[in-house]
C-alpha cells in the first residue's frame, strides 16, 4: 500500500496560532476529510514562533493531485488567518508506526534530512528495521512516521512523545542522528494540535 501526503508549512505569528487552530478544527478538517480518498489530516504548531505545519494524507498520488483545486481556497484562508507565508511539499509516506493513539502525544519532534536518490530504499529499510524498534524501546514513545520526497532528495521523520521530557530521553540513533550525522537539515519540536492523520501502520510494509 502506497500512501501520499502533502505538508503545508505556515510561518505565521505567535498571536495567530490559536485562531488558526480554531479555523482548522471548525472549517478545514470537516471540508478536507470529506474530499475523495483523503485518509487523514493533522496539524502541529509552535505557539512561541507561529510556525504551523498541516499534513493531509491521500490514498494515491492521483487523489492528492486531484485535491489541489478544492484545497487551495482552504489553504489560502488558513494562511490569511495565521497571517503568514506558505511552503508546500509533497511526499510518499514510507513508514508509519503507532504505539499509542495520537491524542496521548504531548510533543512532536520533526527531523528533516537529505537523502541521496540512490539510497532511498536503504534509508527506508534502516528506519523500519533499526529506528522504529529503537523508538519502541523508549518510555514515552507514541508514534513515528517517515515521509520521503525522492525527487528533492529529502526526508522528514516525525516522532510523537507523551511529553517534552520523554522526547529528551530519546536514543540518539532513534531519530536518525547517530546514523545520518550531517545529513540532518533541521530538527524542531512542536505541539500536536490536530491529531486526525488516519494513515495505517506501514512500518512492516
Question: What would you say this structure looks like, in words?
Answer:
The protein is built from six helices and eight strands. About 6% of the residues have low confidence. It is 31% helix and 39% strand. Strand 2 and strand 3 form a beta hairpin. The longest helix has 17 residues. The protein has one domain: Alpha-Beta Plaits (2-Layer Sandwich), CATH 3.30.70.100. By secondary structure, the protein is an alpha+beta fold. The protein starts with a strand and ends in an 8-residue tail after the last strand. An eight-stranded antiparallel β-barrel has the order 1-3-2-8-5-7-6-4. The radius of gyration is 16 Å and the shape is globular.
What is the correct CATH architecture?
2-Layer Sandwich
Low-confidence stretches: 171-182
Secondary structural class: alpha+beta
Helix count, DSSP H or I runs of 4 or more residues: 6
**Strand order of the biggest β-sheet:** 1-3-2-8-5-7-6-4
CATH topology: Alpha-Beta Plaits
**What is the 3D form?**
globular
What is the CA-based Rg, rounded? Answer: 16 Å
Let me know the largest β-sheet: 8 strands, antiparallel, barrel
The N- and C-terminal alpha carbons lie at a distance of 8 Å
**How many domains is the backbone divided into?**
1
CATH class: Alpha Beta
Query: Which H/E pattern describes the elements?
Result: EHEEHHEEHEEHHE
Question: Number of DSSP strands?
Answer: 8
Please tell me the overall pLDDT. Answer: 86
How much of the polypeptide forms β-strand, as a percent range? 35-45%
Amino acid at each position: 500500500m502506497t500512501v501520499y501526503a502533502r505538508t503545508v508549512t505556515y510561518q505565521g505569528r505567535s498571536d495567530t496560532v490559536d485562531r488558526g487552530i480554531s479555523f482548522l478544527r471548525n472549517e478545514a478538517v470537516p471540508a478536507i476529510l470529506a474530499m475523495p480518498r483523503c485518509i487523514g489530516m493533522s496539524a502541529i504548531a509552535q505557539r512561541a514562533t507561529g510556525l504551523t505545519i498541516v499534513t493531509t494524507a491521500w490514498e494515491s498520488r492521483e487523489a492528492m493531485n486531484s485535491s489541489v483545486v478544492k484545497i487551495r481556497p482552504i489553504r489560502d484562508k488558513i494562511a490569511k488567518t495565521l497571517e503568514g507565508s506558505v511552503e508546500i511539499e509533497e511526499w510518499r509516506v514510507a513508514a508509519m508506526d503507532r504505539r499509542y493513539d495520537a491524542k496521548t502525544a504531548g510533543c512532536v519532534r520533526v527531523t528533516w534530512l537529505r537523502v541521496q536518490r540512490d539510497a532511498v530504499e536503504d534509508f527506508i529499510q534502516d528506519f523500519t528495521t533499526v529506528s522504529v524498534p529503537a523508538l519502541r524501546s523508549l518510555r514515552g514513545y507514541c508514534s513515528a512516521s517517515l515521509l520521503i520526497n525522492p525527487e528533492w532528495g529529502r526526508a522528514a521523520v516525525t516522532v510523537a512523545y507523551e511529553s517534552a521530557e520523554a522526547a529528551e530521553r530519546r536514543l540518539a540513533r532513534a531519530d536518525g542522528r547517530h546514523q545520518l550525522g550531517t545529513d540532518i537539515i533541521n530538527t524542531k519540536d512542536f505541539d500536536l494540535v490536530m491529531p486526525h492523520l488516519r494513515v495505517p501502520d506501514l512500518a512492516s510494509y
